[in-house]
Amino acid sequence: MRVYRFLLAVALACPLVALAQEPGSNVTFTGSVQSDVLLPQEDDKIGAEKPDEWGLTNTYVDLHMMSRNIDAGMRMEYMRFPLPGFEEDFKGWGLAHIYAKMHTEHFDITLGNFYEQFGSGFILRTYEERSLGIDNSLLGVRAVAKPLKGVTLKALSGYQRHYWSYNNALVSGGDVELNIDQWSKAMRDHGTYVSLGASFVNKHEREDEYFVDATHRLRMPENVNAFDVRARVQKGNVNVLAEYAQKTHDPTYENGMIFHKGNVAMLSASYSKKGMSMLLQAKRSDAMSFRSKRTIYGTSSFLNHLPAFTMDHTYALAALYPYATNPDGEWAYQAELGYTFKKKTLLGGKYGTSVKLNFSHVHAIDQKEVDLSAHNGYYEGTEGYRSAFWKWGDEMFYQDLNVQLDKKFSNAFKLHLMYMNQFYNKTQIEGEGGLIHSNIYVADGKYRINNKLTLRGELQYLTTAGDEGDWAFALLELSWLPRLMFTVSDMYNCGDSKVHYYQGLITYNAGSHRLQVGYGRTRAGYNCSGGVCRYVPASKGFTLSYNYNF
Known about the structure:
5% of the residues lie in helices and 55% in strands. The protein is mostly beta strands.
Protein backbone atom coordinates (compact mmCIF):
# COMPACT_ATOMS: atom_id res chain seq x y z
CA MET A 1 0.00 0.00 0.00
CA ARG A 2 2.90 2.40 0.70
CA VAL A 3 4.38 1.69 -2.74
CA TYR A 4 0.97 2.30 -4.32
CA ARG A 5 0.66 5.68 -2.61
CA PHE A 6 4.20 6.70 -3.68
CA LEU A 7 3.51 5.82 -7.31
CA LEU A 8 0.18 7.64 -7.09
CA ALA A 9 1.91 10.78 -5.80
CA VAL A 10 4.46 10.69 -8.64
CA ALA A 11 1.75 10.02 -11.23
CA LEU A 12 -0.27 12.98 -10.01
CA ALA A 13 2.64 15.38 -9.58
CA CYS A 14 3.93 15.26 -13.17
CA PRO A 15 0.76 16.40 -15.01
CA LEU A 16 -0.03 18.91 -12.25
CA VAL A 17 3.34 20.62 -12.58
CA ALA A 18 2.90 20.73 -16.35
CA LEU A 19 -0.60 22.16 -15.98
CA ALA A 20 0.57 24.82 -13.54
CA GLN A 21 3.24 25.95 -15.98
CA GLU A 22 0.93 26.04 -19.01
CA PRO A 23 0.13 29.64 -20.07
CA GLY A 24 -3.49 30.62 -19.55
CA SER A 25 -4.29 27.54 -17.47
CA ASN A 26 -5.94 29.69 -14.74
CA VAL A 27 -4.53 27.50 -11.99
CA THR A 28 -5.07 28.67 -8.42
CA PHE A 29 -3.54 27.29 -5.23
CA THR A 30 -5.10 27.31 -1.79
CA GLY A 31 -4.08 25.67 1.44
CA SER A 32 -3.96 25.80 5.20
CA VAL A 33 -1.74 25.07 8.17
CA GLN A 34 -3.10 23.96 11.52
CA SER A 35 -0.86 23.18 14.46
CA ASP A 36 -1.99 22.52 18.04
CA VAL A 37 0.77 22.19 20.65
CA LEU A 38 0.80 21.25 24.34
CA LEU A 39 3.81 21.66 26.61
CA PRO A 40 2.64 19.25 29.32
CA GLN A 41 3.21 19.48 33.05
CA GLU A 42 2.56 16.93 35.77
CA ASP A 43 -0.28 17.62 38.20
CA ASP A 44 -1.14 14.92 40.75
CA LYS A 45 -4.22 16.82 41.91
CA ILE A 46 -6.05 16.35 38.61
CA GLY A 47 -4.25 13.16 37.51
CA ALA A 48 -2.26 14.79 34.71
CA GLU A 49 0.85 12.86 33.74
CA LYS A 50 3.96 14.26 32.05
CA PRO A 51 5.11 12.18 29.08
CA ASP A 52 8.76 11.72 28.16
CA GLU A 53 8.44 14.23 25.32
CA TRP A 54 8.80 17.92 26.17
CA GLY A 55 6.04 18.83 23.71
CA LEU A 56 3.05 17.23 22.00
CA THR A 57 1.52 18.36 18.72
CA ASN A 58 -1.05 17.57 16.04
CA THR A 59 -0.02 19.41 12.86
CA TYR A 60 -1.70 19.44 9.44
CA VAL A 61 -0.61 21.09 6.18
CA ASP A 62 -3.12 21.10 3.29
CA LEU A 63 -2.41 22.14 -0.30
CA HIS A 64 -5.03 22.26 -3.07
CA MET A 65 -4.74 23.15 -6.73
CA MET A 66 -7.79 24.11 -8.78
CA SER A 67 -8.25 24.69 -12.47
CA ARG A 68 -11.08 24.63 -14.98
CA ASN A 69 -11.20 20.83 -15.32
CA ILE A 70 -8.62 19.41 -12.91
CA ASP A 71 -8.29 19.71 -9.14
CA ALA A 72 -5.67 18.07 -6.98
CA GLY A 73 -4.36 18.23 -3.47
CA MET A 74 -2.48 16.61 -0.65
CA ARG A 75 -2.20 16.78 3.12
CA MET A 76 0.86 16.23 5.29
CA GLU A 77 0.36 15.33 8.93
CA TYR A 78 2.79 15.29 11.84
CA MET A 79 1.57 13.36 14.88
CA ARG A 80 4.76 11.67 15.99
CA PHE A 81 4.04 12.91 19.52
CA PRO A 82 0.26 13.50 19.45
CA LEU A 83 -1.91 15.36 21.93
CA PRO A 84 -3.30 13.32 24.87
CA GLY A 85 -6.16 10.88 24.40
CA PHE A 86 -5.58 9.62 20.86
CA GLU A 87 -5.23 5.92 20.13
CA GLU A 88 -1.76 4.38 19.89
CA ASP A 89 -2.00 3.84 16.12
CA PHE A 90 -2.67 7.58 15.68
CA LYS A 91 1.04 8.28 16.11
CA GLY A 92 3.01 8.89 12.93
CA TRP A 93 3.85 11.43 10.25
CA GLY A 94 3.91 11.67 6.49
CA LEU A 95 1.65 12.05 3.48
CA ALA A 96 -1.83 11.21 4.74
CA HIS A 97 -4.09 12.35 1.91
CA ILE A 98 -3.61 12.82 -1.84
CA TYR A 99 -6.08 13.11 -4.70
CA ALA A 100 -6.67 14.28 -8.25
CA LYS A 101 -10.09 15.14 -9.64
CA MET A 102 -11.17 15.68 -13.22
CA HIS A 103 -14.53 17.41 -13.58
CA THR A 104 -16.86 18.67 -16.26
CA GLU A 105 -20.40 20.00 -16.08
CA HIS A 106 -22.00 16.55 -15.97
CA PHE A 107 -19.23 14.22 -14.78
CA ASP A 108 -16.33 14.06 -12.35
CA ILE A 109 -13.93 11.35 -11.31
CA THR A 110 -11.57 11.32 -8.32
CA LEU A 111 -8.46 9.19 -7.97
CA GLY A 112 -6.77 8.87 -4.57
CA ASN A 113 -8.22 9.72 -1.16
CA PHE A 114 -11.80 10.96 -1.03
CA TYR A 115 -14.75 11.48 1.33
CA GLU A 116 -18.33 10.55 0.56
CA GLN A 117 -21.74 10.30 2.22
CA PHE A 118 -24.81 8.46 0.95
CA GLY A 119 -28.06 9.94 2.29
CA SER A 120 -27.88 10.55 6.04
CA GLY A 121 -24.79 8.36 6.29
CA PHE A 122 -26.51 5.24 7.65
CA ILE A 123 -24.48 2.91 5.39
CA LEU A 124 -21.66 5.20 4.25
CA ARG A 125 -20.11 8.35 5.62
CA THR A 126 -16.37 8.99 5.38
CA TYR A 127 -15.18 12.28 6.84
CA GLU A 128 -12.50 14.07 8.82
CA GLU A 129 -12.98 15.32 12.39
CA ARG A 130 -9.62 16.37 13.78
CA SER A 131 -10.78 16.97 17.36
CA LEU A 132 -11.78 13.28 17.53
CA GLY A 133 -8.84 11.92 15.57
CA ILE A 134 -11.13 10.67 12.80
CA ASP A 135 -10.08 10.48 9.15
CA ASN A 136 -11.74 7.44 7.59
CA SER A 137 -11.27 8.41 3.95
CA LEU A 138 -11.28 5.85 1.17
CA LEU A 139 -8.29 5.36 -1.13
CA GLY A 140 -9.43 4.39 -4.60
CA VAL A 141 -11.72 5.81 -7.27
CA ARG A 142 -14.98 7.76 -7.08
CA ALA A 143 -17.17 8.85 -10.02
CA VAL A 144 -20.17 11.18 -10.07
CA ALA A 145 -22.40 11.62 -13.12
CA LYS A 146 -25.38 13.87 -13.83
CA PRO A 147 -26.63 12.41 -17.13
CA LEU A 148 -30.08 14.02 -16.93
CA LYS A 149 -31.62 16.99 -15.22
CA GLY A 150 -32.42 16.06 -11.62
CA VAL A 151 -30.45 12.78 -11.70
CA THR A 152 -27.21 12.20 -9.78
CA LEU A 153 -25.34 8.88 -9.93
CA LYS A 154 -22.35 7.93 -7.78
CA ALA A 155 -20.03 4.92 -7.80
CA LEU A 156 -16.92 4.25 -5.73
CA SER A 157 -14.46 1.59 -4.66
CA GLY A 158 -11.48 1.72 -2.35
CA TYR A 159 -9.75 0.80 0.88
CA GLN A 160 -10.41 2.67 4.11
CA ARG A 161 -7.71 4.55 5.94
CA HIS A 162 -6.84 3.34 9.44
CA TYR A 163 -4.44 5.97 10.73
CA TRP A 164 -1.15 5.24 8.89
CA SER A 165 -2.25 2.08 7.10
CA TYR A 166 -5.26 0.84 5.15
CA ASN A 167 -7.64 -1.97 6.05
CA ASN A 168 -7.67 -4.98 3.72
CA ALA A 169 -11.41 -4.95 3.05
CA LEU A 170 -12.45 -3.59 -0.34
CA VAL A 171 -15.37 -1.17 0.04
CA SER A 172 -17.55 -0.58 -3.04
CA GLY A 173 -20.88 1.10 -3.51
CA GLY A 174 -23.25 3.19 -5.52
CA ASP A 175 -25.92 5.82 -4.99
CA VAL A 176 -28.70 7.29 -7.10
CA GLU A 177 -30.66 10.43 -6.25
CA LEU A 178 -33.66 11.73 -8.20
CA ASN A 179 -34.97 15.27 -7.78
CA ILE A 180 -38.48 14.74 -9.13
CA ASP A 181 -39.38 18.44 -8.98
CA GLN A 182 -36.74 19.17 -11.63
CA TRP A 183 -38.94 17.35 -14.13
CA SER A 184 -42.13 19.29 -13.32
CA LYS A 185 -42.50 23.04 -13.58
CA ALA A 186 -45.96 22.74 -11.97
CA MET A 187 -44.44 21.25 -8.82
CA ARG A 188 -41.87 24.03 -8.55
CA ASP A 189 -44.52 26.70 -9.18
CA HIS A 190 -46.53 25.30 -6.26
CA GLY A 191 -43.49 25.12 -3.96
CA THR A 192 -43.34 21.32 -3.95
CA TYR A 193 -39.96 19.57 -4.00
CA VAL A 194 -39.51 15.79 -3.94
CA SER A 195 -36.29 13.79 -3.93
CA LEU A 196 -35.84 10.00 -3.85
CA GLY A 197 -32.62 8.14 -3.17
CA ALA A 198 -31.23 4.63 -2.95
CA SER A 199 -27.75 3.36 -2.01
CA PHE A 200 -25.80 0.12 -1.86
CA VAL A 201 -22.47 -0.64 -0.14
CA ASN A 202 -20.48 -3.87 -0.16
CA LYS A 203 -17.59 -4.72 2.17
CA HIS A 204 -15.47 -7.58 0.84
CA GLU A 205 -13.26 -8.81 3.69
CA ARG A 206 -11.34 -12.06 3.53
CA GLU A 207 -12.36 -14.70 6.04
CA ASP A 208 -10.47 -14.58 9.33
CA GLU A 209 -10.15 -17.70 11.42
CA TYR A 210 -12.11 -17.35 14.64
CA PHE A 211 -12.27 -20.42 16.88
CA VAL A 212 -14.95 -20.64 19.54
CA ASP A 213 -13.02 -23.55 21.05
CA ALA A 214 -10.68 -26.31 19.87
CA THR A 215 -13.37 -27.92 17.70
CA HIS A 216 -15.66 -25.09 16.56
CA ARG A 217 -14.70 -22.36 14.06
CA LEU A 218 -17.01 -19.62 12.80
CA ARG A 219 -17.48 -19.24 9.06
CA MET A 220 -17.10 -15.52 8.50
CA PRO A 221 -19.02 -13.83 5.66
CA GLU A 222 -16.63 -12.49 3.03
CA ASN A 223 -19.27 -10.04 1.81
CA VAL A 224 -21.35 -7.74 3.99
CA ASN A 225 -24.00 -5.80 2.05
CA ALA A 226 -25.88 -2.70 3.14
CA PHE A 227 -28.88 -0.99 1.49
CA ASP A 228 -30.48 2.41 2.01
CA VAL A 229 -33.65 4.03 0.64
CA ARG A 230 -34.93 7.52 1.41
CA ALA A 231 -37.50 10.11 0.39
CA ARG A 232 -37.68 13.83 1.11
CA VAL A 233 -40.74 16.01 0.50
CA GLN A 234 -40.85 19.76 0.94
CA LYS A 235 -44.10 21.67 0.56
CA GLY A 236 -43.96 25.32 1.45
CA ASN A 237 -42.68 25.58 5.02
CA VAL A 238 -42.92 21.83 5.74
CA ASN A 239 -40.03 19.42 5.17
CA VAL A 240 -40.31 15.64 5.75
CA LEU A 241 -37.53 13.05 5.44
CA ALA A 242 -37.99 9.28 5.77
CA GLU A 243 -35.07 6.86 5.50
CA TYR A 244 -34.46 3.16 6.06
CA ALA A 245 -31.24 1.13 5.89
CA GLN A 246 -30.40 -2.53 6.39
CA LYS A 247 -27.18 -4.52 6.75
CA THR A 248 -26.55 -8.26 6.35
CA HIS A 249 -24.78 -10.53 8.87
CA ASP A 250 -21.63 -8.81 10.15
CA PRO A 251 -19.90 -10.56 13.10
CA THR A 252 -17.24 -8.36 14.74
CA TYR A 253 -15.25 -8.18 17.96
CA GLU A 254 -17.46 -5.25 18.93
CA ASN A 255 -20.75 -7.22 18.83
CA GLY A 256 -19.34 -10.43 20.29
CA MET A 257 -19.13 -12.27 16.94
CA ILE A 258 -22.88 -12.70 16.53
CA PHE A 259 -24.68 -13.01 13.18
CA HIS A 260 -27.41 -10.42 13.72
CA LYS A 261 -28.75 -8.38 10.80
CA GLY A 262 -28.72 -4.64 11.30
CA ASN A 263 -31.27 -1.98 10.42
CA VAL A 264 -32.10 1.66 11.09
CA ALA A 265 -35.26 3.65 10.40
CA MET A 266 -35.67 7.41 10.71
CA LEU A 267 -38.49 9.92 10.31
CA SER A 268 -37.82 13.66 10.52
CA ALA A 269 -40.26 16.53 10.02
CA SER A 270 -39.65 20.27 10.29
CA TYR A 271 -41.65 23.46 9.88
CA SER A 272 -40.28 26.97 9.67
CA LYS A 273 -41.48 30.46 8.97
CA LYS A 274 -40.40 33.90 10.07
CA GLY A 275 -40.35 33.96 13.86
CA MET A 276 -41.15 30.26 14.42
CA SER A 277 -39.60 26.84 13.79
CA MET A 278 -40.47 23.26 14.79
CA LEU A 279 -38.61 19.95 14.52
CA LEU A 280 -39.75 16.38 15.27
CA GLN A 281 -37.44 13.38 14.82
CA ALA A 282 -37.51 9.68 15.64
CA LYS A 283 -34.93 6.99 14.92
CA ARG A 284 -34.61 3.31 15.73
CA SER A 285 -31.31 1.53 15.13
CA ASP A 286 -30.37 -2.09 15.74
CA ALA A 287 -26.88 -3.60 15.24
CA MET A 288 -25.80 -0.92 12.76
CA SER A 289 -22.12 -0.69 13.66
CA PHE A 290 -20.47 -0.99 10.22
CA ARG A 291 -16.66 -1.17 10.12
CA SER A 292 -14.17 -1.95 7.38
CA LYS A 293 -12.33 -4.33 9.73
CA ARG A 294 -14.15 -6.71 12.06
CA THR A 295 -11.38 -6.91 14.69
CA ILE A 296 -11.26 -3.18 15.56
CA TYR A 297 -12.75 -1.22 18.47
CA GLY A 298 -12.76 2.52 19.15
CA THR A 299 -13.58 5.48 16.92
CA SER A 300 -11.68 4.34 13.82
CA SER A 301 -12.67 2.31 10.73
CA PHE A 302 -16.37 3.20 10.81
CA LEU A 303 -17.94 3.13 7.36
CA ASN A 304 -21.21 4.70 8.49
CA HIS A 305 -22.55 7.28 10.90
CA LEU A 306 -25.62 7.27 13.15
CA PRO A 307 -26.61 10.81 14.23
CA ALA A 308 -27.24 11.13 17.96
CA PHE A 309 -30.56 13.05 17.81
CA THR A 310 -29.43 15.00 20.86
CA MET A 311 -28.45 18.65 21.05
CA ASP A 312 -24.72 19.40 20.67
CA HIS A 313 -24.02 21.70 23.61
CA THR A 314 -21.13 24.18 23.53
CA TYR A 315 -21.29 25.46 27.11
CA ALA A 316 -18.76 23.74 29.37
CA LEU A 317 -21.13 22.34 32.01
CA ALA A 318 -23.91 21.52 29.55
CA ALA A 319 -21.35 19.42 27.65
CA LEU A 320 -19.94 17.78 30.79
CA TYR A 321 -22.02 14.63 30.21
CA PRO A 322 -22.32 14.28 26.40
CA TYR A 323 -24.18 11.43 24.74
CA ALA A 324 -22.43 8.88 22.52
CA THR A 325 -24.63 6.99 20.04
CA ASN A 326 -25.08 3.31 20.94
CA PRO A 327 -24.48 1.34 17.70
CA ASP A 328 -25.87 -1.87 19.27
CA GLY A 329 -29.35 -0.38 19.24
CA GLU A 330 -31.46 2.51 20.52
CA TRP A 331 -34.70 4.43 20.15
CA ALA A 332 -33.93 8.14 19.83
CA TYR A 333 -36.36 11.06 19.77
CA GLN A 334 -35.90 14.80 19.47
CA ALA A 335 -38.33 17.71 19.40
CA GLU A 336 -37.58 21.41 19.18
CA LEU A 337 -39.71 24.55 19.14
CA GLY A 338 -38.37 28.02 18.50
CA TYR A 339 -40.40 31.22 18.69
CA THR A 340 -39.57 34.92 18.51
CA PHE A 341 -41.87 37.39 20.25
CA LYS A 342 -42.18 40.46 18.08
CA LYS A 343 -40.76 43.85 18.92
CA LYS A 344 -42.85 46.29 20.89
CA THR A 345 -45.08 43.60 22.41
CA LEU A 346 -45.49 42.67 26.09
CA LEU A 347 -43.06 39.72 25.90
CA GLY A 348 -40.99 41.01 22.99
CA GLY A 349 -40.12 44.37 24.48
CA LYS A 350 -38.25 46.97 22.48
CA TYR A 351 -35.98 44.54 20.58
CA GLY A 352 -37.90 41.26 20.55
CA THR A 353 -37.33 38.05 22.54
CA SER A 354 -36.40 34.60 21.20
CA VAL A 355 -37.20 31.36 23.04
CA LYS A 356 -36.17 27.83 22.11
CA LEU A 357 -37.33 24.61 23.76
CA ASN A 358 -35.50 21.35 23.00
CA PHE A 359 -36.24 17.81 24.22
CA SER A 360 -34.33 14.61 23.43
CA HIS A 361 -34.78 11.10 24.77
CA VAL A 362 -32.75 7.96 24.00
CA HIS A 363 -33.88 4.52 25.17
CA ALA A 364 -32.72 0.94 24.78
CA ILE A 365 -34.49 -1.30 22.28
CA ASP A 366 -36.02 -4.59 23.34
CA GLN A 367 -33.42 -7.39 23.18
CA LYS A 368 -34.26 -10.99 24.08
CA GLU A 369 -31.26 -13.31 24.05
CA VAL A 370 -31.54 -16.46 21.94
CA ASP A 371 -31.83 -19.90 23.52
CA LEU A 372 -28.26 -21.18 23.60
CA SER A 373 -29.27 -24.79 24.28
CA ALA A 374 -29.55 -25.40 20.54
CA HIS A 375 -26.09 -23.91 19.94
CA ASN A 376 -23.98 -25.97 22.35
CA GLY A 377 -24.12 -23.07 24.79
CA TYR A 378 -22.09 -20.75 22.55
CA TYR A 379 -23.13 -17.12 22.15
CA GLU A 380 -20.70 -16.54 19.26
CA GLY A 381 -22.05 -17.62 15.90
CA THR A 382 -25.70 -17.24 16.90
CA GLU A 383 -28.16 -14.47 16.08
CA GLY A 384 -27.40 -13.19 19.57
CA TYR A 385 -30.82 -11.77 20.33
CA ARG A 386 -34.22 -11.00 18.89
CA SER A 387 -35.86 -7.61 19.05
CA ALA A 388 -39.48 -6.48 18.62
CA PHE A 389 -39.46 -3.31 16.51
CA TRP A 390 -41.80 -1.12 18.55
CA LYS A 391 -40.87 -2.38 22.01
CA TRP A 392 -38.54 -0.51 24.36
CA GLY A 393 -35.90 -2.14 26.48
CA ASP A 394 -35.49 -1.60 30.21
CA GLU A 395 -32.83 1.14 30.22
CA MET A 396 -32.98 4.83 29.48
CA PHE A 397 -29.66 5.96 27.99
CA TYR A 398 -30.08 9.73 27.94
CA GLN A 399 -32.63 12.53 28.31
CA ASP A 400 -32.22 16.28 27.93
CA LEU A 401 -34.85 19.00 28.35
CA ASN A 402 -33.56 22.53 27.90
CA VAL A 403 -35.05 25.95 27.37
CA GLN A 404 -33.06 28.93 26.03
CA LEU A 405 -33.90 32.62 25.97
CA ASP A 406 -32.19 35.38 23.98
CA LYS A 407 -32.94 38.95 24.94
CA LYS A 408 -31.48 42.24 23.72
CA PHE A 409 -31.80 44.96 26.33
CA SER A 410 -30.04 47.76 24.45
CA ASN A 411 -27.82 48.31 21.45
CA ALA A 412 -24.86 47.47 23.69
CA PHE A 413 -26.08 44.57 25.87
CA LYS A 414 -27.43 41.09 25.01
CA LEU A 415 -28.25 38.22 27.37
CA HIS A 416 -28.59 34.49 26.75
CA LEU A 417 -30.13 32.27 29.45
CA MET A 418 -30.46 28.48 29.50
CA TYR A 419 -31.89 25.90 31.87
CA MET A 420 -31.22 22.21 31.26
CA ASN A 421 -32.58 19.10 32.96
CA GLN A 422 -30.50 16.04 32.08
CA PHE A 423 -30.42 12.29 32.70
CA TYR A 424 -27.14 10.55 31.76
CA ASN A 425 -26.66 6.78 31.97
CA LYS A 426 -22.96 6.72 32.78
CA THR A 427 -22.89 2.94 33.13
CA GLN A 428 -24.17 2.40 29.59
CA ILE A 429 -22.01 5.11 28.00
CA GLU A 430 -18.78 4.88 30.00
CA GLY A 431 -19.01 1.44 31.67
CA GLU A 432 -19.86 2.44 35.26
CA GLY A 433 -21.33 5.26 37.32
CA GLY A 434 -25.10 4.72 37.30
CA LEU A 435 -27.82 7.12 36.15
CA ILE A 436 -26.86 10.75 36.81
CA HIS A 437 -29.61 13.37 37.07
CA SER A 438 -28.43 16.98 36.83
CA ASN A 439 -29.77 20.52 36.50
CA ILE A 440 -27.67 23.08 34.64
CA TYR A 441 -28.10 26.87 34.67
CA VAL A 442 -26.32 29.18 32.21
CA ALA A 443 -26.16 32.97 31.89
CA ASP A 444 -24.18 34.44 29.00
CA GLY A 445 -24.00 38.22 28.65
CA LYS A 446 -22.28 40.36 26.01
CA TYR A 447 -21.65 44.09 26.41
CA ARG A 448 -20.26 46.25 23.59
CA ILE A 449 -18.17 48.94 25.26
CA ASN A 450 -17.41 50.74 21.99
CA ASN A 451 -16.85 49.89 18.33
CA LYS A 452 -13.64 48.02 19.16
CA LEU A 453 -14.10 46.62 22.68
CA THR A 454 -16.62 43.91 23.64
CA LEU A 455 -16.84 42.15 27.00
CA ARG A 456 -18.55 38.76 27.30
CA GLY A 457 -19.13 36.82 30.50
CA GLU A 458 -20.50 33.37 31.39
CA LEU A 459 -21.80 32.00 34.68
CA GLN A 460 -22.78 28.32 34.81
CA TYR A 461 -23.82 25.97 37.59
CA LEU A 462 -24.50 22.22 37.51
CA THR A 463 -26.17 20.57 40.46
CA THR A 464 -26.41 16.81 40.95
CA ALA A 465 -26.49 14.31 43.78
CA GLY A 466 -24.52 11.77 41.72
CA ASP A 467 -21.03 11.29 40.31
CA GLU A 468 -18.63 14.07 41.42
CA GLY A 469 -21.30 16.40 42.77
CA ASP A 470 -21.94 20.04 41.82
CA TRP A 471 -19.85 22.13 39.41
CA ALA A 472 -19.48 25.88 38.86
CA PHE A 473 -17.99 27.67 35.86
CA ALA A 474 -17.12 31.30 35.14
CA LEU A 475 -15.61 32.98 32.09
CA LEU A 476 -14.63 36.50 31.02
CA GLU A 477 -13.69 37.35 27.45
CA LEU A 478 -12.49 40.74 26.23
CA SER A 479 -12.38 41.25 22.46
CA TRP A 480 -10.36 44.12 20.99
CA LEU A 481 -11.33 44.24 17.32
CA PRO A 482 -10.01 43.25 14.94
CA ARG A 483 -6.97 41.47 16.36
CA LEU A 484 -6.91 40.59 20.07
CA MET A 485 -9.00 38.55 22.47
CA PHE A 486 -8.24 37.78 26.14
CA THR A 487 -10.04 34.91 27.90
CA VAL A 488 -9.91 33.66 31.49
CA SER A 489 -12.08 30.86 32.88
CA ASP A 490 -12.37 28.52 35.82
CA MET A 491 -14.38 25.32 36.27
CA TYR A 492 -14.62 24.35 39.94
CA ASN A 493 -15.83 21.12 41.49
CA CYS A 494 -18.02 21.92 44.48
CA GLY A 495 -18.26 18.23 45.44
CA ASP A 496 -15.59 15.84 46.66
CA SER A 497 -12.43 16.99 44.85
CA LYS A 498 -12.69 20.81 45.28
CA VAL A 499 -10.44 21.20 42.24
CA HIS A 500 -10.12 24.29 40.06
CA TYR A 501 -9.69 23.82 36.29
CA TYR A 502 -8.42 27.28 35.37
CA GLN A 503 -7.40 28.54 31.93
CA GLY A 504 -6.05 31.75 30.44
CA LEU A 505 -5.89 32.40 26.68
CA ILE A 506 -4.65 35.18 24.41
CA THR A 507 -5.76 35.09 20.76
CA TYR A 508 -4.23 37.21 18.01
CA ASN A 509 -5.62 37.54 14.47
CA ALA A 510 -3.76 39.12 11.55
CA GLY A 511 -5.33 38.61 8.15
CA SER A 512 -5.39 34.88 7.46
CA HIS A 513 -3.19 34.09 10.50
CA ARG A 514 -4.58 33.12 13.90
CA LEU A 515 -2.37 32.48 16.93
CA GLN A 516 -3.58 31.44 20.37
CA VAL A 517 -1.41 30.87 23.44
CA GLY A 518 -2.66 29.74 26.81
CA TYR A 519 -2.00 28.02 30.10
CA GLY A 520 -4.20 25.95 32.36
CA ARG A 521 -5.77 22.67 33.33
CA THR A 522 -8.10 20.42 31.32
CA ARG A 523 -10.48 18.02 33.06
CA ALA A 524 -10.56 14.37 32.06
CA GLY A 525 -13.73 13.59 30.13
CA TYR A 526 -15.26 12.95 26.75
CA ASN A 527 -15.00 15.13 23.66
CA CYS A 528 -18.00 14.46 21.40
CA SER A 529 -19.23 15.53 18.00
CA GLY A 530 -22.40 14.19 16.38
CA GLY A 531 -22.71 11.28 18.79
CA VAL A 532 -19.08 10.10 18.34
CA CYS A 533 -16.88 10.54 21.40
CA ARG A 534 -13.20 10.37 22.34
CA TYR A 535 -11.91 10.11 25.90
CA VAL A 536 -9.49 12.91 26.78
CA PRO A 537 -7.30 12.43 29.87
CA ALA A 538 -6.57 15.27 32.28
CA SER A 539 -3.76 17.60 31.25
CA LYS A 540 -1.99 20.75 32.36
CA GLY A 541 0.49 23.04 30.67
CA PHE A 542 1.10 25.70 28.07
CA THR A 543 -0.88 25.47 24.83
CA LEU A 544 -0.26 27.01 21.43
CA SER A 545 -2.56 26.91 18.42
CA TYR A 546 -1.69 28.34 15.01
CA ASN A 547 -3.93 28.49 11.93
CA TYR A 548 -3.08 29.92 8.53
CA ASN A 549 -5.19 29.91 5.37
CA PHE A 550 -3.91 30.98 1.97
